[in-house]
Design brief:
single chain; alpha+beta; Beta-Lactamase; Helix Hairpins; 4 domains; six-stranded antiparallel β-sheet; five-stranded mixed β-sheet
């Protein structure tokens, strides 16, 4: 076969393998096999420099089917020393490879060609090399099992040396000048094919990584789903984005809750990134390999995969923050809706009770008076007693309705107002921070205890704070203060919001009165506060001016007698 046809056939096989986008070691092994079969050499070695590492693939024939042997080491280690080998000539061959890769040769001066290749048919004879002025000259002993030796640099972009093609033969006078020229053309083409394969693999990996991030973003938009379902969906997207998806497993750990791919097991081949929410470490995201793989940038992982897992951790931080904010918002909104519903029932119950109490009192009173009439027949007395009993029963129903109107029977106990404030403000802390509201707390020490329903007092605080937050849509300062006054404790909630006009101030505690747009409020929040405070025997006052904020003062009485707490 003419050399041109041989070149085309060999090039086609190499380019075809490069176009498959195989992983580096697979590509090196396949190319070395193709070249060995064509050249009939006893040894073919392919050396590549990629990602700051030196890769060497050795393929030899020893009377049996050849198997590729790989060596991988950091590039700086390859540059720094010669390998320890029982064959003395191996150290000189290593030095020669390094100098060719560095470009420390004078082109066209034997045994180098004008293209920078080295070749000899007699390695038993010492070789004196005149290198560049920087490297000087050196006498090499290249002898060993191969008489013929040829090294061809792989060059891309006209000057960048990315590797070597090395051929060895036990036969004397194996290489001719024509062979060297032929393999120089093959090496030139192989350099281009190697660069193409590398670019193709990198593009493929970037597409996988971007696809992973895009799909995570899509999952994050499913805000209607619970957080645990979102995290489980995210962890399933991770293994396909890594270099070896067939052996990759993933796990997300959040607050000791674990979300993992099926069959996950921990191994030392791990890449992980911490997950921080509001500056606090909450967990980690991990990708592990079930089987060993060749050394890359970070163990068997790429440095781009380090960037990817850090990006995934960042996305998870946003998802968790958003999910928690949604949960807190939903919880608070449900509390407010509950308070509004109870307030509505309270207003209706109060109206019904007022309309029924007066006629019911008249019926009961007249029936009891009629029972006192002398000479009343026994049957009439029995009938009047039925009226009295029915009236008392109706009055008890009204009394229970009024108790329900005050949000069920109160569970009063001794409470410390500072503790209620602390718990309530911690509950609202995230929402206040999100609203760019600075909180100032001035809690009086040694505050006397009061007898009150802790949940209702907490509701008073939450309603007042939420009202203040709504008055500061652009942020501001919220001051929460407690004071001990004569026979009472005082809670002060003050904001720097939009304030209220005198007309609004006069109706602030009127049920269903609101200045908000339709659908934005029911006008029951402050009326609920007023009802709870008055039910506890306390008072509430408000001072406000338009554009200058508002100040609410709640006073709850302290026990008149220094009684001890009882169980």
């Amino acid at each position: 076969m003419p050399r041109l046809q041989e070149f085309c056939a060999l090039s086609h096989q190499i380019l075809q393998r490069a176009n498959l986008g195989d992983l580096r070691l697979d590509f090196m092994r396949e190319v070395a096999q193709v070249i060995r079969e064509y050249s009939a050499c006893d040894a073919v070695e392919l050396h590549l420099i990629e990602r700051r590492k030196y890769y060497r693939c050795r393929l030899r024939t020893d009377g049996v089917s050849p198997e590729a042997v790989f060596d991988i080491e950091p590039l700086d280690q390859f540059d720094a020393h010669s390998p320890k080998s029982p064959v003395p000539a191996e150290a000189d061959r290593h030095w020669l490879r390094r100098e060719i890769l560095r470009g420390h040769i004078e082109l066209g001066k034997p045994p180098f060609t004008a293209a920078g290749s080295f070749w000899t048919n007699d390695t038993a004879a010492p070789v004196v090399l005149r290198l560049s002025r920087e490297a000087g000259s050196r006498s090499l002993n290249l002898g060993g099992e191969y008489r013929g030796l040829a090294l061809f640099p792989l060059v891309v972009n006209g000057h960048e040396r990315i590797g070597l093609l090395e051929l060895g033969s036990r036969q004397p006078d194996f290489f001719s000048a024509e062979d060297i020229e032929f393999y120089e053309s093959i090496a030139q083409m192989l350099g281009v094919a190697t660069a193409h394969r590398r670019a193709q693999v990198e593009v493929r990996e970037r597409v996988k990584e971007l696809t992973c991030l895009y799909r995570i973003a899509q999952v994050a938009e499913r805000t209607e789903e619970p957080l645990n379902q979102i995290l489980q969906a995210v962890v399933a997207l991770l293994p396909p984005a890594w270099l070896y998806p067939e052996i990759a497993m993933a796990r997300i750990i959040i607050d000791e809750q674990i979300y993992a791919t099926p069959g996950f097991r921990d191994t030392p081949l791990k890449q992980s990134a911490d997950i921080h929410v509001h500056g606090v470490r909450r967990g980690a995201v991990e990708v592990v390999y079930a089987e060993p793989r060749s050394e890359l940038d970070e163990g068997p992982f790429l440095k781009e995969e380090r960037d990817l897992i850090e990006a995934v951790a960042g996305e998870l931080e946003i998802i968790i923050e958003r999910g928690q904010a949604a949960q807190e918002r939903a919880k608070l909104e449900e509390q407010l809706r509950h308070a509004d519903r109870l307030a509505t029932i309270g207003q209706l119950s109060a109206g019904v009770a007022h309309e029924l109490n007066e006629p019911l009192g008249n019926i009961l009173g007249f029936a009891q008076l009629a029972q006192k009439c002398p000479g009343l027949p026994a049957q009439a007395d029995q009938d009047l007693q039925k009226i009295v009993n029915a009236s008392l029963h109706a009055r008890e129903i009204i009394r229970k309705l009024m108790i329900f109107a005050r949000q069920m029977p109160q569970q009063k106990t001794y409470i410390n107002l500072n503790q209620v404030v602390g718990n309530g403000m911690s509950f609202l802390e995230a929402r206040l921070a999100k609203g760019k509201i600075t909180v100032v707390q001035r809690l009086a020490p040694n505050l006397p205890e009061v007898v009150a329903d802790p949940s209702q007092v907490a509701q008073v605080l939450i309603n007042l704070v939420v009202n203040a937050m709504q008055a500061m849509p652009e942020g501001g300062v919220l001051t929460v203060e407690t004071q001990a006054v004569a026979h009472a404790v005082r809670l002060i909630v003050e904001d720097t919001g939009i304030g209220m006009s005198e007309e609004v101030l006069q109706q602030v505690f009127v049920p269903f009165f609101t200045t908000k747009e339709v659908g934005q409020g029911t006008g029951l929040g402050l009326s609920v506060v007023h009802g709870i405070v008055t039910a506890h025997g306390g008072t509430i006052k408000v001072a406000s001016q338009a554009g200058q904020g508002s100040r609410f003062e709640v006073e709850l009485p302290t026990p008149k007698l220094p009684e001890h707490k009882t169980d």
